[in-house]
Amino acid sequence: MDMKTISFSVNGKPQKVHVRTNWTLSSVLREQLGLLGTKIGCGEGECGACSVLMNGKTVTSCLVLAVQADGAEIITIEGLENMDGTLHPVQEAFVEAGAVQCGYCTPGMVMSTIALLEKHPEPTEEEVREGLTGNLCRCTGYQKIFEAVQIASKKMRRG
Amino acid sequence: MNNIKYFLPKSLEEAVKYLSDNNDAKVLAGGTDLIVKWKKTGCPDMHLMDIRGINKFAEMNDLSEGFFIGAGATIEQVESCEKIKADFPILSEAARNVGSVQVRNLATIGGNSCNAAPSADTVLPLIVYEAEAVIVSVSGEKRCTLKDFFVGPGKTVMRPGEMLKGFVLPKPKPCTVVSFAKHSRRAGMDLATVGVAVKICLKKGEKSAEEISVALGAVGPVPVSVKGLEKFNGADLSSDNVLKEIAEFSFEQASPITDVRGSKDYRSKMIVQNVKDCICKAIKID
Amino acid sequence: MAMTRYEKGDYKIIGTKRPYVDAKEKVTGRTVYVSDIHLPGMLYGKALRSPYPHAKILNVDISEALKVPGIKTVLTGKNVEQYKWGPITKDEYLIAVDKANYTGDEVAAVAGIDEEACDEAISKIRVEYEPLPAILSMHDAMKDGAPLIHESAPKNICNHFDIHHGLDTDEVFKNAYYVHEGEYETSLHYQGYIEPMAGVSVWDAHNNVTMYAGIQTPTWSRNDYAVALGIPVENLRIVQPPFGGGFGGKLSQPVHPLGALIAKYAKQPVRLVLDRVEDFQCALPRLPMYFKIKTAWDKEGKYLGKYTYIIADQGAYASYGASIALTAMYRIDIMYKCQALRSVCDLVYTNKVPTGCYRGFGNAQKHFAHETHLDEVAEVLNIAPDELRLRNFSGENYKNPHGWNTNSNAVSDCMKRGLEASEYHDKRKKFFVVNSDEKNHIKKGIGFAACVHVSGNRSFIKPFEGAAALLRMNEQGKVYVFSNEPDMGQGIRTVHSMCVQEVLSISEEHVCTTTPDTDIVPFGLGCFASRGTYMSTGALHMALNDMKSKLIKIGSEILGLPEGELELENEFVVSKTDPEKKASYADIAWKHVCDYPGQHILGIGYFTPEGVEYPDATKYNNISGGYAFGCQVAELEVNTKTGQVKVNEMWGIHDSGQPINLLAIEGQVHGGMAQGYGWALMENLAYNDKGKLMNPSFLDYQMPTAADIPKINAEFVDSFEWTTGFGAKSIGEASLIGAAPAIQNAVYNAVGVRINTMPITAEKVLKALEEKKRHQNQKTSVE
Q1: Distance of alpha carbon C740 from alpha carbon C677, whole angstroms
Q2: Closest CA to C238 of C201, C278, C205, C276
Q3: Could you give the C-alpha distances from C399 to C338, C485, C611, in angstroms and in order?
Q4: N- to C-terminal Cα distance for chain C?
Q5: Contact state of C707 with B186 under an 8 Å Cβ cutoff
Q6: Integer Cα distance of C697 and A47 in angstroms
Q7: B1-51+58-172 placed in CATH 3.30.465.10
Q8: Which of A31, A55, A76 is the last residue of a domain?
């Protein structure tokens, strides 16, 4: 069994973890670091529930081997809140818009929204749809998620 | 069972050397195909060489003979590269059609070819743009036009010890028009039922062609580069009959099958339809 | 005896939009779902599944699997104590004993220290099978010579039903002005919740079992699971943590008790979570159904009679098939005033995934068939589809031949508003002109369907229907709500919180809505049959009034004022005349705890819908207190070159009685219609001729993505269901069932073809268009 020690930053904090080479990033986040907000919906990169930011870009962490994250900067859903517990504007918007039903897709959806708004601060409907294509939601029919993205966009531009 | 031997080379030389010494090693780039397949087959033992640490692999730059795209460039980098948007617009378009944002952030242009899936989106524009695959090994570099790169499902011309360094795309002639179509069942996150890329060099001020290239995806064991299209050189592309002939001629070279994405019959019809539509779109007639 | 008739109150909170009470936990990733639970000493479970759709199990050799490091136990059908179980028909073992009945059937199970060890052990179990001929289509199940799947079901018929109420259908058909016949078939529709089936079980030395399960029906499913495990019901405690979506799929199903069985033999807690491929293979998707519908009409479009024949495919095991088939047979009959009704159904076994409950419960299938059928009839009779329905809608206080009766009923309003909001009539005219241009290969269409569903279905436990609610105010004045109706994302905890806030004038922070634990919550049936809000808010209404009167009583003692002079305001009992005279809930709660040492103030409520009775042997009697209605509209375009259908916009206009949380019921309409949209156009679990599931992934089984989904508009007509305290009816299932027939009718409007076998794929549309063209050409050549 090959093992490797990886050093990476998770939510701004340095982490050093001894991992097996066949572990995925999602399993290390969940099982080694206790960051259960990263969800597993399919394990095949098709539902997007495990999306995290890796070096500023969203990836499905179930398709990334943990060893590939050596040296990377990872942001998970747990890394968005401020120290004082105030929410990130995207999180606030999801709550306000009712964009969360069962909530299992939500962490991934929020991470994708953050990346989307980074790329398109004032996204068109088309850009929103394209930006969230990799995140399946079965509860909301996406309608209130689309609303949430626009609310978040306004909040973030207001600063 | 369940072990991965993992190696992360720091340089191209180191990578090539390692591959030469370890013929069982698979090149790990984005992993969006490789890791999924590995999981679907019960996570067997695997020997991986991860090339993502080598910046040189992700380079994109101008060469005298054309534009070089490193095999390790992500689909997202290809999609957003201004040079590609300007000179090779349907490569950019095809890249935008790959999977989802998350997939495009991980997957690489090289992986999309090396995986040798008949449905790979970026392969079709690379074929019609007459891209050459640059293959490296300890014995040096060699080139292979992309249309000759695929030899079977999941199989390329590359031999053990060889790896893909990137693609060289010759600059298209000024008269060139192009178009791309991905016919899929759902708008997002889907593989093509039928993919088509078309490149046409138009005669100046006319709707007839000096040269036509058509590539078809998801219609056989490997991506299809349609052969023998010279016979349509000079034909009037604004004629419905000509379009029909070209489409049917292209279809003759496809060998579509029935799967969950579509039946053989439907695929056949969609090849013809999409080739016609693509030519019309390229030369801007409705 | 006169029925209780509740009146609409002057609500401040009910009917507004409130963010879900648990949303903040969810957006921060803090919510612990079932598959996140990790107990001390916990092992992982995994099942070995049959690769054959139908095969005798000759031998299971587990010797090599037991040698795998980290493996605690390996179970087969024969080395465990287990009992045949099933929610209605007891026809299934948790681990197959002699025979596997579908690809995916459990034939062995393991427990180990991690998933890898389990996977390795599973790969080392050697099973000797003798493959048997398999039935892969419901149409083959009853044929002579078909292989028999269950000894107890000759000809593979699990149930044969024949329901006939009202006038004699044969007579009506004989004398009718017009008789219309149509055939329709629905597909294998997968729930697609994002968290797969999951459970964590602990089995103690006294055979007490605690199960943490993603389940919609905790107290009720206990009875089924206890049978499978051979333990007394009272030994089984089910705790329902938040879980990632149900949509009907997470009622009684095998994953939870199988996990418990593994835990029993592992003697350690076990977490059993399906991987997605397994979930596709063996969750309980929607029953495919074949319909033959024959209806009788007079010249003016009066609906005279209906005969329906159904074959319903329940797959390898019965699950809730019988109830679902019955729903398909006659539920829609409460929407139309038809007086001659006969429905016959064969519920058959096949060697495919066992099918079960999915949002709509048979009614979705029937709506696809029936609402398509009505548009066909309208065309023949040359009556507009909406006019035909208007002439036959049931209306308020209508009693149908099955003994069902409506109370509130705004179905006409829903349809009128739906057609107005979508500009249906204008668009039909406009599209006709646009579509007439032959050069134009993009044809536009708009269509709609009316829909009805229950708010609770009294067909499950003969002496019981209803719900209970228990409120407890602790010594600081905070109110806890205990209900057996679980939240699976639909937002019932928020609904409960809003009702408490409304009646007790208390802030959201001081209301705690708990998740069900069968050791604590009152008995009840749970969330299915769209019963949650209607039933539980009925019970809550009573419990809140109980608590309110107690607060006022104690307040009156503290303040020395008569009870009649007091009201509740902002967590005080206040004098109506002198606002300075007030006692806080905290003071009242503390006084109660001191006067009756330790006792909290309780509010106890229960609810049973009046005028609802268990069906008799002929299936006569009203099964629901609140029928929810709606109209769903779809506008789309069809590419005649490719057959592709692109839905541009949808509208769902509903009569859900009084909305409690407007935000949540809008969300229900969006989500329901999105699932109906996917079902109509793209979703179908496809088997090959070897009985293998061909698309067990989110890539190949296609659900709508953000790029696909059309704009969906949700709206509610003014309505109040007077049989329940806050006037709320259901929405969960009503929200799904109209979308598919609306899309079907819109496709027909666009291109004049109907795809009566779901899903309406591009391929089928193109084929139908070609056939239509061929037909027209033949016609012209004959002429």
Answers
A1: 6
A2: C201
A3: 11, 29, 11
A4: 69
A5: yes
A6: 10
A7: yes
A8: A76
Same domain, A95 and A149: yes
Task: Determine, for residues C706 and A102 on separate chains, whether the beta-carbon distance falls below 8 Å.
Answer: no
Q: Does C708 touch chain B (CB under 8 A)?
A: yes
A67/A104 same-domain check? no
Q: And the tokens for A32?
A: 């080694």
Would you tell me the crossing angle of helices C662-681 and C739-751 to the nearest 10 degrees?
50
Identify the domain containing residue A49 by its residue range: 3-76
List the structure tokens of C39: 């107990």
Q: Which CATH class is domain C23-31+466-607?
A: alpha beta
For C241-289, how does the pLDDT look when each residue is reduced to its tens digit (9 = 90+)? 999 999 999 999 999 999 999 999 999 999 999 999 999 999 999 999 9
**Cβ–Cβ below 8 Å for B186 and C766:** no
Total number of domains in chain A = 2
Q: With a cut of 70, say whether residue C77 has pLDDT above it.
A: yes
Taking the Cβ of residue C17 and every Cβ of chain B, the question of whether any pair is shorter than 8 Å is answered with no
B172 upstream amide cis, omega within 30 of 0 = no
C99-100 β-sheet, strand order: C99-100, C55-61, C126-131
Residue position matching structure tokens 């949430």: A148
Q: Tokens for C35?
A: 């598959």
CB B125 within 8 A of CB B216: no
Q: Compare CB distances from B260 to C641, C686, C704 and report the shortest one's residue.
A: C686
Chain C, residues 593-612, CB within 8 A of chain A, namely none
Q: What's the fold here for domain C410-452+626-783?
A: Aldehyde Oxidoreductase; domain 4 (3.30.365)
C514 near C479, Cβ under 8 Å?
Answer: no
CB neighbours (10 Å) of residue C584?
A: 16
Q: For C277, name the nearest residue in chain A, comparing CA atoms only.
A: A42
Residues A95 and A36 in one domain: no
Domain boundary assignment for chain B? 1-51+58-172, 176-282
Partners of A60 on chain B (C-beta within 8 Å) are: 102-103, 106
Q: Same structural domain for residues A140 and A110?
A: yes
The alpha carbon of C729 is separated from its chain's Cα centroid by a whole number of angstroms, namely 15
**Chains in contact with chain C (at least 3 beta-carbon pairs closer than 8 A):** A, B
Nearest to A43 among B3, B39, B189 (CB): B39
Task: Write out the H or E segment, with its range, that includes residue C672.
Answer: helix C662-681
CATH of B176-282, one of 3.40.470.10, 3.30.390.50, 3.50.50.60, 3.10.20.70: 3.30.390.50
Per-domain boundaries in chain C:
23-31+466-607, 410-452+626-783
- Which among B187, B191, B277 has the least Cβ separation from residue C699? B191
pLDDT in tens, chain B (286 residues): 579 999 999 999 999 999 999 999 999 999 999 999 999 998 999 999 999 989 989 999 999 999 999 999 999 999 999 999 999 999 999 999 999 999 999 999 999 999 999 999 999 999 999 999 999 999 999 999 999 999 999 999 999 999 999 999 999 999 999 999 999 999 989 999 999 999 999 988 888 899 999 999 999 999 999 999 999 999 999 999 999 999 999 999 999 999 999 999 999 999 999 999 999 999 987 6
Residues of chain A with pLDDT under 50: none
* Whether residue A56 sits in one domain with residue A120: no
Q: Assess if residue A150 is contained within a domain.
A: yes
The predicted-structure confidence for C301-325, as pLDDT tens digits, reads as follows 999 999 999 999 999 999 999 999 9
- Cβ <8 Å between A106 and C27: yes
Residue C454: CB atoms within 10 Å:
28
